[in-house]
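re: that chain from earlier
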Amino acid sequence: MTLIQTRSGPMSRAKTSLAALAVALAGITACASTPDPDAQAAAELQAAMVEAMKPATPEEIEAANNSDPLTKANFWSKEYAKDAENLDNALTFANALRGIGSTERAIEVLSEVLVIYPGEPRILMPLGRALAVNGNQLGAARAFEQVAVADPGRAEAWAALGTALDQLENHQGAQAAYDKALAIEPERASTLANYGLSLALTGDLTGAEGKLRQAASTAPGDIRIRENLALVLGLQGRFDEMQKTSAGYAPDAVVEQNVELLKDMIQSAPAPEASREKTAIQAAASEPEKAAPPAESTGLRLRRSGG
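^ sequence. v structure.
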């Protein structure tokens, strides 16, 4: 029997090397295809963050705006956190905060976004109102003044400035601001009414009556305007007219009580006449209602008009 011996030639060795390389590559590929748990978790977290930072859909916004004030504020808090530089989000969030009585936080939000949009009237107007509600009439006046100077044709800004100045007892400046507002919108009832109060506080009861009557004719259903007109008539000693003006929105007992109360105030207030009238107005503004009229009825008090 002849034994045949084989030798490992170059071709054989090459085949062996290729086979080994294939095995090694297969191992590497297998390792690469095995998922890394840490990397996968990081990718999922990143995807979740991207999803969470997406703006709300129109449907979500509508649902939030139609919900209760606290839910609405929480919703816009999240939207504001997603993009603190978005002016619309900041304004809506601040308005929602005021809706739940969180005025100080609203001031913070508006002040923060004002740094990004300096001098922006859309920020300054609600900021001024929030400052006024919070008792900072000087800050409110400054905010409204910036808007009025930047946009002199904006009646809303001049009217708000007048109200803030009246609160600071700068009645002359307030009346100048009301004049500017009314030059732009002559039939602006709230401005006419507040102008009337300002004139009453400076002792000009005739002028106050004129402004309040004009306001009442423009907005006949505004109870606050009728209250103030009745008060000004009473301060002039025209108590019958005061009662007629008050009739229809307050119980007869409350109207009669207010007339007697005002008579006592005028008689007991110190002279001179202008000082006596102003003292009576100030007392009426803070006089508590002794009766308990229905919610839509009121006692003797000054009431500023909004807007």
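The chain is about 70% helix and 0% strand.
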